[in-house]
Specification:
Strand order of the largest sheet of chain A: 1-2
Oligomer: heterodimer
Strand content of chain B: under 5%
Strand order of the largest sheet of chain B: 1-2
Helix content of chain B: 55-70%
Strand content of chain A: under 5%
Distance between the termini of chain A: 25 Å
Radius of gyration of chain B: 24 Å
Order of helices and strands of chain A: HHEHEHHHHHHHHHHHHHHHHHH
Structural class of chain A: mainly alpha
Chain lengths: 482, 469
């Protein structure tokens, strides 16, 4: 089935063209304005595409654009990716909006637009080699930034190189082995390692903290918050991996979630604290994805949305604080509440949304995730609760360290500006709205979860509508070797 | 649509019930939205909104009680439908008005209303006035949701709101370090309690496929309900709920947070830690009392925990040098006795009446605490000498050799905080710090030099070192 309008294609082409235009603009202020325009247009296209897909009631929809038609299955969306596209575009848009004038010389707007185009292309692509190629391309921008800023790149390069190599090698073996369901370790193990690297699973997580240490906060945030590792897991690993592999990933992720939450407690600097909170949530999403039951999978998909949104808000709040105070130590109290009460409220709100606090977007997702994890891992699934509890303590501890404990004296006003206010209030509205009306999201996520699970089942020869059969079975099995 | 609010019959009882639930939600929205937008309301408007909300909520809950008595109804369920309904997972939004929840809701409105009026004057021109009432509104919402919850998820919803608002209120005077440090302590204990409750909810879902209390305790109205769980199920769920209750009610070994909570402003200490939230644990045990009836082991544990907490509270309160802390431990004594009454299987109305009476008395004592010291001083000035020191007649029965150790134990509040820190928090934090140092070596090795740019931003101290204080 085709979408009514070529919005998917436009959502990718607009930031791509924008990147080319903005890279030629020398004035940083103008570059930011153009970047905002292109990001806004891309966001509008993705929202339109989501609504279009929703009204079609289809399993998969193709973009009717010329370019998309010429590229086969490169540009198409399904229930999984439909909400991820506007979410990703929104995170980019809000990050661009909330970039302060003092930081615009260091922040690459052209690079941001290119990164947005690539991110949207990955999420619109179901072709395995397309995903692998686009993800490999996406690793380049942070590397270039690290190099341009004279920062160490080895940790990042080693991990990303290993990620790309293992992902490509794993999929190559999958294709060589053909359509057999049971793939050999040669195929599965590299894919498992690739997923663990990209999601930051223990012991491959150090590149995430390293990236936050050395890259600009905005770049690290945009590279990580769309959670592409989870996307790789759903598209490439879940449909073909044997159950024991998925359970292994689940167990490693469970350990990573608790470990990262504990590490967040002892961090002495705000960026590192944030990176561990990210790692813990990224691992929790992976735990849910590997539970292989509809409830856990639905929880994972909900937490994916809520964590991406709230982590982006949480990161933007920290970034706004950092823009005013420089690197933020968590070993002493800063007491900036009186200067930036709205940032304090948003810090707490987004932090609580991350940990699944009642009334926020993350609440129901976390409940479902815990339920699903306990179903699959009856004795250790409770570790999800421990991770959530530790994350909650870490968030409040960081709040107290940053906003309270002393009276901060400043000779210059530190209030947040209109653009930052717009960004954090938009996120707050979405987080609270998603918390109050989860029924707008959860059933659709459940549908996506069932579809993911159905891809693991053998193709059904009968019992479906004729048109559905052809499409369903074609999409449910791994692609044919070329 | 998988979700729907049920079409609720517009009977007077349902309308009043809806009002009771809606008032705290509207209060949070009315105070929270301007606060979130960065333009909090004026003191006068906040006072008016809070007063109106509490009066309407109280009248509605009294109306529910009156109608239930008039109609002879033992239990009314306000089923708002499924918040989310998936195959094998339902999140129902259900509130139950019965002989346990209605008195507790009325108590919440009475005490919160009283404290709202008191705090309106007490915190006049305080810079955090709007922040206090925002957190107060969240607390009221949490209390009402917890009191009336018909499912364990709704209860968890309210339980968490009570926890976060309490921790933030302890840290209300946040330009000083001590309240913040104590707020974090309270939050840590509450998180343990919340985790236990969440695990209980998950186990219940696992066993019954839903979190409805009727799935746990049958359909008979409280207190005649009987659990439908069999075998070891009541003991497992009951133990988890006991941990949750112990954390919330500051029972041993979690008692250390109670005196720390007194760092908050007097109105919040009075209503939250002296009267309402400290009783939530006991309330939870009353709500799930059929589990205790089904498990003698669980009942015995509850009884022992209650008695130990009562004895500890009685001992510690006698050695406190500050009136709020002495009252806090006196509260713990009574809460311990209430829990012991529940564990001993006394008729369920006895602990309920004990809760109601104790909460009202303790609120009065807390509110009088600051002015009674002034009264004492005036009295001493008038008689021209010190008032005779009070000594308990029970002291004569304590052997001389035990007096100093017992006094030391009481002054140090049973060493509970120190024990928890030394034997649980410090080893855990030490382990993670060791992992952090390993990670540093690993990234230094990979990058061929110093890998942590953030070191330049750091001071000498470590995070969570405050916990040892």
């Amino acid at each position: 089935m085709n979408l009514d309008l070529p919005l998917l294609e436009l959502a990718i082409l607009i930031p791509l063209a924008g990147a080319a235009i903005v890279s030629r603009i020398g004035n940083s202020d103008q570059a930011r304005l153009w970047c905002l325009g292109f990001c806004g247009a891309a966001f509008a296209c993705t929202v339109g595409e989501w609504l279009d897909f929703h009204t079609l009631h289809a399993e998969i929809a193709h973009d009717p654009g010329l370019l998309a038609r010429s590229m086969g299955d490169f540009l198409e969306i399904d229930a999984l990716s439909a909400p991820l596209l506007p979410l990703t575009a929104l995170i980019y848009l809000l990050t661009a909006i909330a970039t302060l004038r003092t930081k615009i010389r260091r922040f690459s707007f052209a690079g941001t637009l290119l990164s947005l185009a690539l991110a949207l292309a990955v999420l619109s692509c179901r072709n395995p080699w397309g995903i692998i190629g686009l993800l490999a391309l996406r690793t380049v921008a942070p590397y270039l930034e690290l190099r341009a800023r004279g920062k160490p790149t080895r940790v990042y390069v080693l991990h990303m190189a290993l990620f790309v190599v293992t992902l490509a090698a794993g999929w190559l073996f999958v294709e060589l082995e053909g359509l057999h369901r049971a793939h050999s370790l040669w195929a599965v193990l590299p894919l498992l390692i690739a997923v663990l690297i990209r999601t930051g699973g223990f012991p491959f997580h150090c590149w995430v903290t390293d990236l936050f240490e050395h890259a600009t906060f905005g770049t690290a945030l945009l590279y990580l918050t769309p959670m592409m590792g989870a996307y790789v897991a759903v598209r490439l690993v879940v449909p073909i991996a044997p159950e024991w592999v998925l359970q292994s990933i689940g167990l490693i992720s469970l350990a990573t979630a608790v470990y990262s939450a504990g590490m967040a407690l002892v961090q002495r600097e705000a960026r590192r604290f944030f990176s561990y909170i990210y790692l813990s949530h990224s691992a929790l999403v992976l735990v849910g994805l590997e539970t292989l039951n509809p409830i856990g999978l639905t929880g994972a998909l909900c937490v994916w949305l809520s964590a991406a949104l709230s982590l982006a808000g949480f990161g933007l709040t920290l970034r706004a604080l950092e823009a005013r105070h420089g690197r933020l130590s968590l070993t002493n109290y800063h007491g900036v509440y009186e200067h930036t009460p709205l940032l304090a409220v948003c810090f707490l709100l987004t932090g609580f949304a991350c940990v699944g606090f009642p009334g926020t977007f993350g609440f129901l997702g976390t409940e479902l995730l815990v339920d699903g994890a306990v179903q699959t891992f009856p004795h250790i699934g409770v570790a999800v609760v421990i991770a959530a509890a530790l994350n909650g303590i870490a968030v409040v501890q960081a709040y107290f360290k940053l906003f309270t404990g002393t009276r901060h004296v400043s000779t210059v006003p530190l209030q947040i500006g209109l653009r930052e206010r717009l960004a954090v209030l938009s996120l707050a509205a979405l987080i609270l709205g998603g918390g109050i009306f989860p029924q707008l999201i959860v059933p659709a996520r459940h549908h996506a979860a069932e579809r993911i699970l159905s891809q693991r089942e053998p193709p059904k020869p009968a019992g479906l509508h004729p048109g559905e059969t052809a499409q369903f079975s074609a999409k449910s099995r791994p692609p044919k070797p070329k | 649509m998988p979700f729907m609010f049920h079409a609720i019959a517009l009977t007077p009882l349902n309308l009043l019930g809806l009002t009771v639930v809606a008032v705290p939600v509207l209060l949070v929205a009315a105070l929270g939205l301007p606060f979130l937008y960065g333009r909090p309301l004026s003191e006068r408007w906040i006072g008016r909104i809070v007063q109106s909300g509490m009066i309407v909520g109280l009248l509605a809950s009294l109306g529910v009680l009156g109608l239930m008595l008039a109609q002879g109804t033992r239990s009314v369920t306000l089923d708002l439908g499924h918040w989310v309904s998936l195959p094998h997972f339902h999140f129902a939004f259900k509130f139950v008005f019965d002989r346990l929840s209605v008195p507790f809701a009325i108590l919440s409105f009475v005490l919160c209303g009283t404290i709202g009026a008191f705090a309106n004057k007490y915190l006049h021109r305080e810079p955090g006035f709007a922040r206090f009432f925002m957190q107060y509104a969240l607390f009221v919402m949490g209390m009402i949701f917890t009191s009336l919850a018909g499912t364990i998820e709704s209860l968890f919803f309210g339980w968490e709101l009570v926890g976060v608002s309490s921790a933030m209120l302890v840290a209300f005077f946040h330009e000083r370090t001590a309240p913040v440090r104590n707020g974090l302590r309270v939050w840590i204990v509450y998180r343990i309690s919340d985790a236990a409750l969440l695990v209980a909810a998950v186990v219940l879902h696992h066993l019954r496929g839903e979190g409805d209390f009727s799935a746990l305790m049958g359909t008979y109205p409280w207190p005649e309900s009987h659990t439908v769980l069999t075998g070891n199920e009541p003991l497992i769920i009951g133990l988890l709920l006991l941990v949750a209750a112990a954390g919330k009610s500051a029972l041993v070994p979690f008692s250390g947070w109670l005196p720390r909570a007194m760092e908050g402003p007097t109105p919040s200490s009075a209503v939250f830690y002296g009267a309402l939230s400290v009783h939530l644990g006991a309330y939870l045990l009353l709500r799930v009392s059929p589990l205790l009836d089904a498990s003698p082991t669980l009942s015995a544990l509850v009884l022992i925990l209650g008695l130990v907490s009562a004895m500890f509270g009685a001992l510690a309160s006698r050695a406190q040098t500050d009136v709020k802390c002495a009252l806090a431990f006196a509260s713990l004594t009574q809460v311990g006795l209430i829990v012991a009454e529940i564990g001993a299987g006394l008729p369920r109305y006895i602990p309920l009446v004990h809760i109601l009476g104790h909460a009202c008395l303790r609120t009065l004592q807390f509110l009088r605490a600051s002015s009674v010291l002034t009264d004492f001083r005036q009295l001493e000035n008038a008689i021209g000498s010190r008032l005779p020191p009070f000594s308990s007649p029970l002291g004569r029965f304590v052997p001389a050799a035990l007096r100093v150790p017992l006094y030391r134990l009481a002054v140090q509040r049973g060493y509970l905080d120190a024990l928890l820190f030394e034997y649980i928090a410090r080893p855990v934090l030490g382990l993670f710090r060791w992992c952090d140092s390993l990670e540093r070596r690993w990234t230094d090795f990979l990058s061929g030099g110093q890998s942590r740019e953030s070191d330049r931003a750091l001071g000498a101290a470590s995070t969570l070192d405050d916990l040892s204080l």
